[in-house]
Specification:
Distance between the termini of chain B: 29 Å
Strand content of chain A: under 5%
Structural class of chain A: mainly alpha
CATH architecture of chain A: Orthogonal Bundle
Radius of gyration of chain A: 21 Å
Strand order of the largest sheet of chain B: 6-7-8-3-9-10
Number of strands of chain A: 0
CATH topology of chain A: ABC transporter involved in vitamin B12 uptake, BtuC
CATH class of chain A: Mainly Alpha
Distance between the termini of chain A: 24 Å
Number of strands of chain B: 22
Oligomer: heterodimer
Number of helices of chain A: 14
Strand content of chain B: 15-25%
Shape of chain B: globular
Low-confidence stretches of chain A: 1-18
Mean pLDDT of chain B: 83
CATH topology of the domain at 7-103 and 154-256 in chain B: Rossmann fold
Helix content of chain A: over 70%
CATH superfamily of the domain at 7-103 and 154-256 in chain B: P-loop containing nucleotide triphosphate hydrolases
Order of helices and strands of chain A: HHHHHHHHHHHHHH
CATH architecture of the domain at 7-103 and 154-256 in chain B: 3-Layer(aba) Sandwich
Mean pLDDT of chain A: 87
């Protein structure tokens, strides 16, 4: 379906369920290699702008990892990213490129943000929050049905349709906030705020809420389901060779739609835990664009759930730490995007040469 | 269809051929595609290369067009030895090729398509191209609008444009690769007239086809390619003087005779045509349309009995694959399929497989297996989730491995390990794995699509033995093959499929080979010949 080297390589590298250490080592090098290169080159850029890269990286690690507040923020931030990772792994493993996770994320967030304040008024917090999450997942899943159907029955490229659905999703989220779910108590375009005591419970008196635990469990479950179960094998077969899937008797259209629903529901849940745990409401025009941050990480992790966890955590640390570093060292906060961009670049490069080396 | 306009062919043939192959040999890994092929093309003649798929026609064209280089022998162009190093060189030497699949840019106009390939620094002049096109059209009796968009033309018209482009850029030799494959009968007749006209103007034409009628109608000379070799030729004199029936008989002899020492069928002796049981697979009125609405299968009915091998003979691309996919439940169509009396028409692949209807595809790596998955999983690809290998949906690696170990031993699959990705194995071992998968468990009827295609001698023998053994246990077998020797050696009855229709079913006895060959070549007088009468 696509000729990008990354995608081809992913198919060739589909990890066997029985990885041996010898087979794992090059894969590990292929993951850590681009990271090391990106950090080095970013450091050179910092040096060129007159900032000591070592000081910058040290500050990032100290603020994002070693300070109590920073660590808690990092963990909290990793929650939605892990769910987005799970969402992307499911769809990419099946060879379906659901790039509409940002739209699905936003609609999930708006649905949860609209439903939760009302639900906590009519029922106890526990069921109310669970119900709000389910509504968020259903809304996001519904948003993915159109591209899913077009892909399954019309063979229409889902990369294009899901990307376009992102723009529509962002606009729809705005419209819903401004016209339907706007908080009548304020003049700002924002949904009603979920009172702090009604939000997702926090862990051991920290600022981290159980959304992170949920995300961790779901990413783990996704990884195990894909690698250990019959369902996962079917998904991987579909992704690796759709013609073989059809030959083996899998109902390819039905699986395609189901995988879209699952992937979108996980993305919607990511939006929900962000709103129900941390933010409390959703502003119009809010679009963190997490999906497009996680996509390169998922590629870098070669669709391995454990690796996604590690990379997502590292990225969360980087983005939290770089906020402080931005203030202290005068490095713009978007510098971390430079790092991620270089990471992607080196990933593609390493992938390309790895591919060539395998062919020889 | 007539030989009108062949006056150039009547003229004295010059001594120097336009192109001459002298014992040209081309090898690919494991395949001898062209084996000491010699033939000559003279100006003003249509030289037909007749042969089945896989006979080596495409390789020969590739060498003519400069896309492949011979490993041995020599190609003389106008008497001079020269290397056709590239497609551009081929054109410069005067050799233009029209490939089987359209190579026009569908969104450009005819004139724009004709302008492609000109010198890049020059702006093509539409007026000049249109004028030249009008001239060529008048010469050849064609009518082509230079401003028509290529994609909107009929296939026949597109082909005419391609022929003109090849003529303009080459000029002396025109190679037509199965040009009639996509055309309807009127289009074929028009192409024939066009070929005669071009030949009359002194161009040498290499006309590749596997249809005997066309060869006789349009050709001045016929060479028959088989298994990479020229097995015989009918020279111009003979073609003109002998009665058509006699030429036909001679060519069928060349095309389908049991002459191939490359693939002896040792298993033949073990085959007895007896003790067939009750009907296992009954197919009634099977039909199918492809995505564009073309009828690719039409009203196919047959029955295969317990222990019987039903050979389905035909030239590639006549609906064999479609029929196999329809029976396996992999593609939708019409008609009724009964397995052991049970109507399975509405069931999917998995359900049919469970009931014992199996399908061994010829596309071993494309759809039969996933190359990146280990051998062990590929052996269970059609049973994903089935007990005992999965419990409550979770894989039980021990049992999966044990199953793989057993099959690897039983079917002699040579693999470094059951965890090796199957794509690393040789074609023969991949085929063994496929046979192992489809024959394990309670198989009742098995469809084999070209089971020995692309295998080496040893593995051909292994696969055939396996199929015969399976049939001996009572499995109803459908053997789809384009290899006549294989069909004759293994089948109890032979069905011949042409253009998606089952032309006739004949018992494998007496002159079945010639009879089937005649049907495959599109010659069907509609009269069933008595089996006992031998033609020669």
């Amino acid at each position: 379906m696509s000729t990008e080297p990354e995608i081809l390589a992913l198919r060739a590298e589909a990890p066997s369920p029985w990885p041996t250490l010898r087979a794992a080592l090059p894969r590990l090098a292929m993951t850590l290699g681009p990271v090391a290169l990106a950090i080095t080159l970013s450091g050179a850029v910092l040096l060129a702008t007159g900032v000591n890269p070592l000081a910058y990286y040290a500050l990032v690690v100290r603020q994002g990892l070693l300070s109590a507040d920073g660590f808690q923020e990092t963990i909290t931030q990793a929650g939605p990213l892990m769910l987005l990772g799970a969402s992307l792994i499911v769809s990419f493993r099946a060879g379906l490129w659901n790039l509409g996770v940002d739209g699905q994320f936003l609609l999930g967030a708006v649905a949860a943000g609209a439903a939760a304040p009302w639900l906590v008024g009519v029922m106890p917090d526990g069921p109310a929050l669970v119900l709000a999450m389910l509504i968020a997942m259903a809304s996001a899943a519904a948003w993915s049905l159109l591209p899913a159907y077009l892909r399954a029955h019309g063979g229409i490229n889902e990369i294009i349709t899901t990307l376009m659905m992102n723009f529509l999703g962002l606009s729809l989220a705005n419209v819903l906030i401004k016209l339907v779910f706007i908080d009548p108590a304020t003049t700002l375009p924002v949904t009603r705020t979920l009172p702090v005591p009604d939000r997702l419970p926090r862990l051991f008196g920290s600022t981290v809420d159980i959304g992170v635990i949920l995300a961790f469990l779901l990413l783990t479950a996704t990884h195990l389901a894909l690698t250990r179960t019959a369902w996962g094998l079917r998904v991987r077969l579909l992704g690796a060779n759709p013609r073989a899937a059809r030959h083996a008797g899998l109902n390819v259209p039905r699986m395609t739609i189901f995988i879209f629903i699952l992937s979108a529901a996980l993305a919607g849940l990511a939006g929900a835990i962000m709103v129900l745990g941390t933010l409390g409401n959703v502003r119009a025009d809010w679009d963190p664009g997490f999906g497009f941050v996680v996509i390169p990480l998922v590629f870098l992790a070669r669709l391995n759930g454990w690796a996604v966890m590690g990379l997502v955590f590292a990225f969360a640390m980087l983005s939290i730490g770089s906020q402080s570093a931005a203030i202290r060292l005068g490095v713009p906060q978007y510098f971390n995007f430079l790092l991620v961009g270089l990471l992607l670049f080196f990933l593609a490069l390493v992938e390309y040469f790895g591919q060539r080396a395998r062919m020889v | 269809m007539s030989l009108a306009g062949g006056d150039a062919a009547d003229a004295k043939i010059p001594a120097t051929p336009l192109v001459e192959f002298q014992a040209v040999t081309k090898r690919f890994p494991g395949v001898l595609a062209n084996d000491a092929v010699s033939f000559a093309l003279h100006p003003g003649e249509v030289h037909v290369l007749l042969g089945e798929n896989g006979a080596g026609k495409s390789t020969l064209i590739a060498m003519l067009a400069g896309m492949q280089q011979p490993d041995g022998g020599e190609i003389l162009v106008q008497g001079k030895p020269g290397t056709i190093a590239s497609p551009a060189r081929a054109l410069a030497m005067g050799i233009g090729t029209v490939f089987q699949h359209g190579m026009l840019v569908p969104t450009l106009t005819v004139a724009e398509n004709l302008a492609l390939g000109g010198q890049w620094w020059r702006r093509p002049s539409r007026a000049a191209i249109s004028a030249r096109l009008a001239e060529t059209c008048a010469e050849l009796g064609l009518d082509i609008d230079p401003d028509a968009v290529a994609g909107k033309l009929s296939l026949g018209e597109q082909q005419q444009v391609e022929i003109i482009r090849a003529l303009w850029r080459g000029g002396k030799v025109l190679v037509l690769d199965e040009p009639t494959a996509m055309l309807a009968p009127p289009g074929i007749a028009a192409l024939g007239t066009l070929m005669r006209r071009m030949a009359a103007s002194g161009i040498g034409i290499v006309f590749i086809t596997h249809k005997l009628d066309e060869a006789l109608d349009f050709g001045d000379r016929i060479s028959v390619l088989r298994a990479g070799r020229i097995v015989g030729a009918v020279e111009a004199q003979l073609l003109k003087t002998l009665p058509r029936a006699e030429v036909t008989e001679r060519i069928i002899g060349l095309m389908f005779a049991s002459a191939a020492p490359r693939a002896p069928v040792q298993a033949t002796a073990s085959r007895t045509h007896a003790e067939l049981g009750s009907p296992v697979l009954q197919v009634t009125g099977a039909g199918m349309k492809d995505a564009s609405g073309r009828q690719v299968l039409r009203d196919i009915s047959f029955t295969v009995q317990e222990g019987e091998i039903f050979g389905l003979a035909g030239i590639d691309g006549n609906g064999q694959r479609e029929l196999a996919e329809l029976l396996a439940g992999q593609a939708a169509g019409s008609g009724i399929v009964l397995l052991d009396g049970q109507n399975i028409t509405g069931l999917d692949v998995a359900a049919r497989s469970r009931l014992g209807l199996r399908y061994v595809t010829d596309d071993r790596l494309g759809e039969g297996t996933e190359r990146g998955f280990p051998v062990s999983l590929n052996l269970l690809l059609k049973q994903i989730g089935a007990a005992p290998f999965w419990r409550a949906g979770v894989a039980r690696d021990g049992l999966i491995d044990e199953h793989a170990d057993q099959l690897v031993r039983a079917f002699d699959i040579r693999t470094p390990s059951i965890h090796t990705p199957i794509g690393r194995l040789s074609g023969g071992n991949i085929q063994k794995a496929l046979l192992a998968r489809e024959l394990s468990g309670p198989a009742r009827a098995v469809i084999y699509c070209k089971p020995t295609y692309g295998l080496d001698l040893q593995n051909i023998e292994a696969a055939r033995t396996r199929i015969l053994q399976a049939a001996a246990t009572g499995i109803a077998t459908i053997l789809i093959s384009t290899d006549m020797d294989e069909i004759i050696a293994m089948s109890d009855r032979i069905g011949v499929i042409v253009g998606g229709e089952l032309r006739r079913i004949i018992p494998n006895a007496g002159n079945a080979r010639a009879e089937a060959g005649r049907l495959m070549a599109g010659l069907d007088d509609g009269v069933a010949r008595p089996e006992s009468v031998h033609v020669h």
